[in-house]
Design a protein that fits this description.
Elements (H helix, E strand, L loop, with lengths): L1 E2 L1 H11 L5 E7 L17 E8 L4 H8 L8 H17 L2 E3 L9 H9 L2 E2 L5 E2 L7 E9 L3 E2 L17 H4 L6 E2 L2 E2 L1 H9 L4 H6 L2 H5 L10 H12 L2
Parallel strand pairs: 1-8
Antiparallel strand pairs: 2-3, 3-7, 4-7, 5-6, 9-10
Length: 228
């Protein structure tokens, strides 16, 4: 394997001006098979890229000043930034919105050792539900990553599970998320608390509350979701 340290340092330095961070990575194997060849290149390693809290928000907002009519602005910003980084380091950038869809959640679990919360979102022991993955970088060579074992699962210590009782329309029940019911609530005129302040179920989680998205970012994500 090729030592990944210098490559990872390069990526981290290139991402920092945008509030983005490395979210771990791994070499594909039988348990986590590589995606089909992309543009004729078969990936051997993947590096996940994302953010914690609102670190990306000021950088995204500054970019959006010059692209006010972009229909999917956060995806467009992510693609512009990560495609540029990928070109500098000899990687291929891929994104959760790309089709055919790639198993980003499974990659994230392997890369950082995270597990899903009762809401279905991956929960981080420090940042709670206030983090996201914006894309990934695929390499045609095997990188030697630092080891990453399972992280502490904070939901094991949470007896009351307030996230499951905070939703005003009980969209999280029977182990599944009722997207239709959630969107209908937001469109009904009675979902203002969620639409303007962020999902009440997500906000009820006590883990990492100090890293919660700022108010404009909350509204941006909720309005984008409500509009489908």
């Amino acid at each position: 394997m090729i030592n990944a340290v210098s490559t990872l340092d390069q990526i981290a330095a290139a991402l920092e001006p945008y509030g983005l961070v490395l979210r771990g990575g791994f070499v594909f194997d039988e348990a986590n098979s590589a995606p089909p060849p992309i543009e004729g290149v078969r990936a051997k390693s993947v590096v996940l890229v994302g953010h914690y809290g609102s670190s990306i928000w000021p950088h995204f907002i500054e970019w959006r000043r010059y692209r006010p009519d972009e229909p999917d602005p956060l995806d467009a910003w992510s693609k512009e930034v990560l495609t540029g980084v990928a070109g500098k380091i000899g990687a291929k950038a891929v994104f959760p919105s790309d089709t055919p869809y790639l198993p980003f959640q499974q990659w994230a679990k392997r890369a950082e050792g995270l597990l899903a919360s009762p809401l279905g979102l991956l929960i981080h022991p420090e940042y709670g539900l206030w983090h996201a993955y914006r894309g990934a970088l695929l390499f045609d060579r095997a990188l030697d990553f630092p080891g990453c074992g399972p992280q502490r699962y904070p939901c094991d210590d949470c007896q009351d599970k307030p996230c499951l009782s905070a939703c005003p329309v009980n969209a999280f029940s029977d182990g599944r998320y009722d997207v239709v019911r959630c969107r209908a609530h937001l469109a009904s005129g009675e979902g203002g608390a969620c639409l303007n302040g962020g999902c009440l179920a997500r906000r009820a989680c006590p883990v990492g509350r100090e890293h919660a998205y700022n108010a404009p970012q909350m509204r941006f994500h909720m309005n984008a979701f409500a509009q489908g």
